[in-house]
Amino acid sequence: MRLLIPRLLPVVVVLLSPSLAKASTYYVSPTGSDSSACTSASAACKTISHAVSLAKSPGDIVQVGPGTYAETVSLSKGGTSGNVIQLRGQDGSGCPTTAVSDVNNPTGTHPASKVTLQGSLQINASYLSIDCISVSHAGLSKGGDGIDFAAGVSDVSVTNFEIAGQGTLTGSGGGIYFPGVAEVRSASYISNITIANGYIHGVSS
Residue 179's closest CA among 155, 157, 147? Predict the structure, then answer.
């Protein structure tokens, strides 16, 4: 008689983690529609603000097409370390430039974005990248800042940008506002902010 001894077989348990959200690119064009899916150049959003509201996941990109956008854009959703949310006025091939004759200019050029935001850019979240955007106060009521940082944000880069005032220093608004600088309040401090290759003119402090 053969004695059968139960044999325990190893059981492999595979724990499936929830799928990570895939980063998306949202497109904007002056001829687009905010009722579109905004996920292709042929079905683009009309406003930057609507595209920004759709960019909720780390790594998302808001790709803004050439043109003028009369709006104030508030960036209230951020990415993560190493996986920022991007707002850019170029397709990844680099921001165009134009030559300048100013002898004090270290590069001889300044950014010449084909995207103009006729309003202001409000940065209310961390882990963001803004590249190749021109902000203009032209035609707007006096006051306001071209780029306005909220208290406590961190890890934001603003590169290859232009901020243009109304042509005079009086009543044209500020260039970039950093909270806590004049008030010396630690709760207002921002940190790890990169401002690079900018061209600011015709504005007041």
Answer: 147
Which pLDDT band, with edges at 50, 70 and 90, does 158 fall under? very high
Q: Rounded distance, CA 24 to CA 85, Å?
A: 10
Q: Closest Cα partner for 121 from 93, 92, 171, 162? A: 162
How many CA atoms within 13 Å lie on the side-chain side of 22? 4
* Alpha-carbon span 117 to 177, nearest angstrom: 17
Assign 94 to helix, strand or coil.
Answer: coil
What H or E segment, with its residue span, contains residue 119?
none
DSSP state letters, 57-70: STT-EEEEPSEEE-
Cα atoms found within 13 Å of the Cα of residue 199, Cβ hemisphere only = 23
pTM: 0.82
Pair of tokens at residue 201: 């003119």
CA–CA distance, 83 with 128 (Å, rounded to integer) = 9
- Burial of residue 52, with CB atoms counted within 10 A of its CB: 0-12 exposed, 13-18 middle, 19 or more buried: buried
Q: In the predicted model, is pLDDT for residue 127 greater than 60?
A: yes
Residue 146 CB contacts under 8 Å (≥ 6 apart), including other chains: 120, 121, 135, 137, 163, 173, 174, 175, 176, 200, 203
Paired strand residues for 136: 118, 164
